Model the fold of this input.
Amino acid sequence: AEEAKSRSSKRVTAVHLKQAIEKDEQFDFLAEHVANVPDAPAPKKQDSEEPVEGKRKRVAASGGGSGGGSGGGDTMDFQLWQRGGSKQSDPAFGSTVTPYLQSINRILRVEIHTPAPHLCIQNVATAQLYILLSSIGTTVCNEQSTKETFRFFNLLVDSEDEDFISDASFADRLTVTLKAISRNVSNGSLDVEVETAELLFAVAAKLRQHSEVLPAWFRPSLDTAPKSLPDTSIALERSQEFPLVFMLLDYVHHDGKVGDFARTGLLYILESVGRSNNLEKWIIESQMATMMASGLGALYSQLSK
Done:
């Protein structure tokens, strides 16, 4: 059992028994019985075996933040990009940056499943690395880098560390990122629509579980005086107060996963109404009900009679 545990295995196999017998002289009489059992392969080095501090420095180097030091050619590319160099408009930069984004996501994914402290995630929050990766994801029109951007934000939304979901700066950046990617990517890209709707749904699910984080995503205007503005202007103002709702409304009429994520996400937000008087008033005064009804009508019209 100790041999299995040392190799992170949940089962005791013949290989583990052979190792235990060979290590203890009192089991010599059993050696001939395990002679034909193959030797255990040499343990492979996993991402999680890298020292945490080393990972933190690599993540820091990604954003050119403090503690990162010299991160090599890739880090220099990021720094040039931040300064607005020619690489921002260089299509080849998408291919260059994708492996770097994959590395960051791999480090964070491994760290999330290890015991605290999670220094890499802490560094992402402190250095606001999501601002840089958001800018890259919304500027570089590369399918793989776009997918890695979605994965990065999904990891932060799901993370219990640093409370990203309650950070208004993170909320703004995520909203801007999703809107920009939807505009930049070719029309009708199902993959992008699914990824966008799923990420919006993940945020709505968090709001349902933790209503105290609602102020980071819902910021109604303090001006309560009646306004004589065109309906389009009022709708624009409402969408800026709670962009998450209006982004979900854009997908209500879709079928398949996209529509399911959108409709369920909106239901989750409606569940929060009882915990916020401001949200209740906002939903009544906004065009949410009308837009949702129109979207559902369009969906049902597609059903076979």
